[in-house]
Amino acid sequence: MTKTKEDVLRQIDEAGVRYIRLCFTDILGKIKGMSITRSEIEQVLAEGQGFDGSSIEGFARIEESDLMAMPDPVTFRIIPWEIAGEKVAQMFCDIQTTDGKPYVGDPRWILRRQLERVAKKGWTFYTGPEIEYFYFENDSDTGILDRSGYFDYGTVDLGTQIRKKTVAALEMMGVPVECSHHEVAPSQHEIDLKYQEALVMADFSQIYRFIVKEIAMENNVYATFMPKPMFGENGSGMHVHMSLFKGDKNLFFDPKGQYNLSTMAKQFTAGILKHVPELTLILNQWVNSYKRLVPGFEAPVYVSWGRRNRSSLVRVPGYRDGKEKATRIEIRSPDPGANPYLAFACMLAAGLKGIEENYPLVDPIEENIYGMNDEQKAALNIDTLPNSLENAIHATEAGDLIKETVGDHIFEKLIASKKAEWDEYRIHVGGYETDKYLNML
């Protein structure tokens, strides 16, 4: 739904909004922002709000730190509870330089730029993430709220109650929810958002993470999107469903195509599979991400695709008569610690590369890959994802796709940040080492 500046001002006054949060995202996916009052909003809508970008992760150097946050009226939403007794709204911003040009370090602009490529062809890129998370008693340990499992349902469970409140808050903010349920691990939950155009969904994903955490705090618990917070239990993923449309036509569907997939869908899938080693740094950007990407815990580690095979990296959900618009591909490796703007942009870039260069798609693998030995996997040419942050960095540096997609500025800042994180982790002496070696050596 299109909103104008006049629509925003009218809604502010009708609802009695006192403060407006101007939000944007740093290169690692963390929401940043500032609050302005009702008296300032008209000027900010027209001219933007200046700020110092030198202290924002991956943003400007100190000698060129003046940036402008330009609110996007389409993203205006009223937060459905009072903060310090006042009604508060929020808007996402596009970051610009002082001369009005898009700022090269803004992840939202990186996604916009990729979407412009498909818009020129008359296409629309849709995404639908399944974002998982955990509830814990607090933020200092992993004290669980329940011992329930996949799709278990209990109306008196605290986690279920908090999840319902979260769904209600999301829908009050205009974020459509498709379904919600308990996940496989104890105290693990999932709320699925209804598929949207990719920029809208990236904004929604940020709202989702904000709302999940806020509602949890209101109920004296802690919600985390850490990919692997508990040893021996499934980690949290962010499976992403993707499709390309032209108007109302799903370009991934072909009634005569093998598996009902169009040539474009196969090429797009081939692009994901070919470039996923270098994509992994974007989709799984933390040291902890690679504690999830191990065999045996439902997270995909093998570069393959299948129609019903949940051990594959890419899955094509089964076609149902009359549901042509639901034809899509699902990539299962991303985790909820990813920056959604960069993740969607880079996945789209990989798929488009497959289309533009006519990548061939290998045959699907429907067998359980986790049950195969090394010889069987080698015979089928099944490769694996990078198994550490260090190896993901090397894979990204060895390829060209990510740098082409995010640009030199974000690429260099991201690589530097991730190398620093890996070095910090590499030299840290943790509990495992003291428990294992202190009394032995």
Account of the 3D structure:
It is built from twelve helices and 18 strands. The chain has 441 residues and is an alpha+beta fold. It folds into two domains: 99 residues, Ubiquitin-like (UB roll) (Roll), CATH 3.10.20.70; 315 residues, 2-Layer Sandwich (Creatine Kinase, Chain A, domain 2). Helix 3 runs parallel beside helix 8. 44% of the residues are buried. The model has no long low-confidence stretch (mean pLDDT 92).
H/E element sequence: HEEHEEEEHEHEEEHEEEHHEEEEHHEHHH
- Any idea what the CATH superfamily of the largest domain is called? Glutamine synthetase/guanido kinase, catalytic domain
The total beta strand count reads 18
The secondary-structure class comes to alpha+beta
Overall tally of domains? 2
Mean pLDDT: 92
Helix content: 25-40%
CATH class annotation of the largest domain = Alpha Beta
Main sheet makeup: 10 strands, mixed
Q: Which parts are unreliable, with pLDDT below 50 for 5 consecutive residues or more?
A: none
Distance between the termini: 65 Å
SS field, number of helical segments = 12
- CATH architecture label name of the largest domain: 2-Layer Sandwich
Shape: globular
Radius of gyration from the alpha-carbon trace, in angstroms: 22 Å
Strand content: 15-25%
The CATH topology of the largest domain is what? Creatine Kinase, Chain A, domain 2
